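ok posting inputs for the calcium ion job
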Amino acid sequence: MTTSTPQLAPSKRPLDAFIAFVAIVAVVTSTVVFALERHHGNGSVNWILFGAIGFLLVVTEATPSAALRFGSEGLVTPSWAFAFALLLLGSPASAIAVMAFASMISDIASKRGIDRLVFNAAQVSTSLAFGSLTLFAFGVHGPIFDPIRLSLHDGIAMILSGVVVFLTNGIIIGLLLTFLERKRFMAIARQGLMLSMTADASMLAIAPVLVVSVQVSPLMVPLLGTTALLVFLTARQALHRAHDADHDPLTQLLNRRAFLGALEEFAASSTHENGAAIFILDLDKFKEVNDRLGHRVGDHVLQQFATRLTAALPGGAVVARLGGDEFAVLVRGASADEAGAIASRVHASFGDPLQVDGFPLSAASSIGVAMFPEHGSTPGEVLHAADVAMYRAKRYRSGVEVFESFGTAREHGRVSLLADVAGAIEQQQFELLYQPQIDMRTGTLDAVEALLRWEHPIHGTIAPGEFIGLAEQTDLIGPLTSYILERALRDLPELPDTCRLALNISARNLQDRHFARETLDVLDAAGVAPSRIELEITESAIADDPELARLAVEEFRAAGVSVTIDDFGTGYASFAMLRDFHVDRIKIDRSFITSAQTSERNTEIIGSIVDLAHRLGLEVTAEGVECIDIWNLLTDFGCDLAQGFLVSRPVAINEIRALAAETWFATEPIASTGLAS
Ligand code: C2E
Ligand code: CA
Ligand code: CA
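and the output
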C-alpha cells in the first residue's frame, strides 16, 4: 500500500483538523459498512481463507523490510493485494478491521507518532469502506466469486470497487500533502499518480486473481505467489529507480536536480502573496574535517548534519543536498521574518557538536536566506541571492544572513546586476584601468596593476567590489577573467618594455584545473613573454583549495609568470602557507598601510612582514600608500614596491607613459614628519 510518510508537524492546526476529519469519516463509513453487513448477512465466508490472508496482511505490514521508502512521499508494500482480497472474500467489515489493525501494528513497529498512526489507520479504513459501499451498491453481499466463473455484473462491481479504493486512498494522501507541503492538490496528484499507479494498482489488481485461484485449488497459491512477487519486485524496482534519480545516496535527501525541480514547480504554481523562503547552508570548515579525519568521518558528519537539519525544520520543508557540504531548503509560504527565525533556529540547533564515532565534531554552518519572488523572479535568481547571502554569512561569520537588495540608489538588485554581467562582456562595458607600482629604490615604474571598471549603461561606473564577489560565486568569473586577460594583453604594447602587468585572479579561477594551461596558451598565442605577467592571488583563494592552488601556482611560475599573494595579512595567512607556497612577492593589505601611523603595533607589524618576506627571499609591495610619510616609513623598512594614490589613482592605459617618464620620490630627499626616521 502507499502510505504517506512526511513528518507531520503537530503545531499545524489545519493539519490536525484534517486528520480528525479523516478519522471521523473512517468511523462513520466503517460503521455504515458494519451495519449493512449485519443487515444483509455476508453469505458463506471462507473464514479459514480469510484468516490465512489476514495473517499475511498483518505480517507484511509489521515487517518494515517489506516496504520501501520512496521520496518523502510514501511506502509501497504488498498489503493492498491482501487487503482487497479480504474485502472480496465476503466480510468487508472484518476486512476493514484487519487492515486498520495491520496499519497500526506497522506504525507501532516503525515507532511513528500517534498522529501518524491515527491518520494511516483512518486512511486505509476509509478507502476500504468506500470500496465496500461500492460492492453493496451493486447488491454484492458476501463472496462474489463463483469458483468456476465470474459473472459480468460481479466483475464490474469488483473492478469499480478496486478503483474506488484506489481513488479514495489517493485523494486522502493528496490532501494530506497539500496541507503539509502547501502545494496545489493537482500538482501532487499529477506527480504522485504515476508512482501510485505502478505500485498500488498492480497490487489491487492481483487481489481478485488471488481470491479466485485460492478457491480453485490451494495448489494455485504458490504459482500466483511467484507472479505476485515478481509484480511487486518490479514495482519496487521502478520506485527504487525513481528514488535514486531524485536523491543523494549519502544523506537520502533530495539531490540538486530534484531541488531545482521542486523550486521550478513552486515558481510555476505560486502566486505572489504565497511566496517561499530558500536557504543555502554551507558547513564551516568541512574541508578541514575531511582532510584531517578522512572521508568516512566526513560522510558521517554530512549524514548527521542532514538528520539534524531535517529535525530542526518545520514539517513540509523541502531539504536537499546540493553537493559537497552545501545544502538547500525550501520553506513554502514563509514570510521573510518567519524565514529568518527558522534559519536562526536551525543555526542554533548546531550549537552543540555532533557526535561522530564518539568524537564531538562541530557542524556549524553559514546560512543564506532569500525570498521568492522578492529576490528574484526565477528559481535560479533566488538561489543566487541565497548564495550571495550565504557568502556574506561566511565572510562576516554571522551565521545567518537574509539577502538584502543592492540599496536604494540602485533599484536594480544585485542579482539582476549579476544577470547583466554576461551581456556586459558582449557589449564591452568593462574597462581596465591601470595603477602604477613604483620600485622604491629607484623611484621608477616597475609594474601596473589592472583594475576592472564596469561602465553600466544605467548605473554608471561600478567598482569591482560590487560585482567581482558576486561573479566569483558563479561560473561567470571564468569568462570574465578570460576577457580581462585578453583586454590587458591588447593594452600591453602601450606599456614601457620593462614594466610588468599585474592581474588579479579569483579563487574560483584557481579551482579550474585548466586555468593555468589555458592562460599560458593565451600568452603564448599573443607572443607575450611570461616574465612580463604577474598574478595577484589572495590568501583566501589559496585557503579554499590549497592543493589546486599550489598546482596552478607552480605551473605559472615554472613558465616564468610571477605570483604575488594579495591582501596579505587579512586572510588566513599562516606560516605554513609561506613555507609551502613558493611565490615571488607579497602585497601587504592596504588596511595595514593606510592606517600605518595610527598605532605603533601596526607599524611594527608592517616592519616585521617586510623582514619576514625578505628572509624568505620575497619582494614586498605596499598598497594603499596615500601620503609621503607612509612612503618614507616604508622606505625605512626596506619595502620594495609601493602602489597608491600618492603616486596615482588607477588611470587609463594611455596615461601610463606620462607617469612612467617620472622618477618618484627616490632621488630627492623628502620632507618628513619625523615618523619616518
Ligand atoms: P585589490 O587587488 O586589493 O586592488 C587594490 C584596490 O585598492 C583597488 O580598488 C584600488 O583602486 C585601491 N587603491 C589603490 N590605491 C589606493 C590608495 O592609496 N588608497 C585607497 N583607499 N585605495 C587604493 P578597486 O579598483 O576598487 O578594486 C577592488 C578590488 O577588486 C581589488 O582589490 C581586487 O580584489 C578586485 N579586482 C579589481 N579588478 C579585478 C580584476 O580584474 N579581476 C579580479 N578577479 N578582481 C579584481
Ligand atoms: Ca590586487
Ligand atoms: Ca589588495
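notes: The longest strand covers residues 444-456. The two ends are 87 Å apart (CA to CA).
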